[in-house]
């Protein structure tokens, strides 16, 4: 759990840093063993979505149809382990080698203790990969992916990088694949400093509806909800947008869930 004095230090730590230099700052956090964003476990919102799979919208793996998944900015790999328990062959990607050392240690401990029981026909494979999400020349990674899970990754990126985030997601998601976003912090104002940067629903709609393009924003850089634009032919269509029954306490206020979970697919596939 993050102490009240820890989380506000993140915006101060990143203050004045150019967008392209943020990855170095995140790596420094891991080097210093200072990870106030760490959730301490997997996303229950993701678990519930996969378990319930409304209208069968999520392509779940089975013995005759293996599926791959990606968790960018995976940190200690909690959600990588969760997806593996549903049978996905999962890549946990992070820019910090120290983060992946921690993820490997966490995985060994969790699996030895019998956590993450198998939810599908078998446990999927896990691979940790130290890569820049935006680099086009990934090594030893089998892309595209059938499922990508984004939680505390989108909000970790300064807004100028969001068009590139959406464009990269478009190239990484397979035809028929699903991008799942746990939208956080959904009620933060764009005028407030990050990370985490404000991530209300119009941000996801604005960038994913037309990947690579810059939607209209206000003076603080927040997407203007009324001007998100129409769905581009090569954009992402939002299939699901709900408040999860359960989420991490950081996404709640006075017992009320603030987070949203959204599911996206290629519009032209």
TrEMBL record:
According to its UniProt entry, one GO biological process term is:
methylation
What the entry lists under SUPFAM superfamilies is as follows: S-adenosyl-L-methionine-dependent methyltransferases (SSF53335)
- Segments forming a coiled coil: none
Listed InterPro entries: SAM-dependent_MTases_sf (IPR029063), TPMT (IPR008854)
Q: What is this protein called?
A: Methyltransferase domain-containing protein
One molecular function GO term is:
S-adenosylmethionine-dependent methyltransferase activity
The answer to whether the entry has keyword Kinase is no
Family annotation (Gene3D superfamilies): Vaccinia Virus protein VP39
Give the record's keywords alphabetically.
Methyltransferase, Phosphoprotein, S-adenosyl-L-methionine, Transferase
């Amino acid at each position: 759990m993050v102490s009240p004095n820890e989380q506000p230090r993140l915006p101060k730590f990143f203050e004045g840093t150019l967008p392209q230099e943020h990855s170095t700052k995140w790596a420094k956090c891991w080097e210093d063993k200072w990870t106030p964003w760490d959730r301490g476990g997997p996303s229950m919102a993701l678990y519930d979505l996969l378990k319930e799979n409304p209208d069968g919208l999520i392509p779940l793996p089975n013995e005759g149809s293996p599926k791959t998944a990606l968790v960018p900015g995976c940190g200690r790999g909690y959600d990588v382990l969760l997806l593996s328990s549903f049978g996905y062959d999962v890549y946990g990607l992070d820019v910090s080698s120290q983060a992946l050392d921690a993820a490997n240690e966490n995985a060994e401990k969790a699996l030895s203790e019998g956590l993450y029981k198998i939810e599908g026909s078998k446990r999927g494979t896990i691979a940790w990969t130290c890569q820049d999400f935006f680099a086009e020349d990934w090594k030893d990674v089998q892309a595209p992916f059938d499922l990508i899970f984004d939680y505390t990754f989108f909000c970790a990126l300064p807004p100028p990088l969001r068009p590139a985030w959406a464009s990269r997601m478009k190239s990484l998601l397979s035809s028929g694949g699903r991008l799942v976003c746990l939208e956080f912090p959904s009620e933060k104002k764009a005028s407030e400093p990050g990370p985490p940067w404000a991530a209300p629903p119009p941000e996801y709609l604005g960038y994913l509806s037309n990947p690579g393009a810059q939607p209209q924003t206000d003076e603080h850089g927040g997407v203007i909800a009324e001007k998100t634009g129409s769905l581009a032919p090569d954009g992402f269509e939002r299939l699901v947008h709900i408040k999860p029954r359960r989420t991490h306490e950081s996404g709640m206020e006075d017992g009320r869930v603030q987070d949203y979970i959204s599911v996206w697919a290629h519009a032209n596939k």
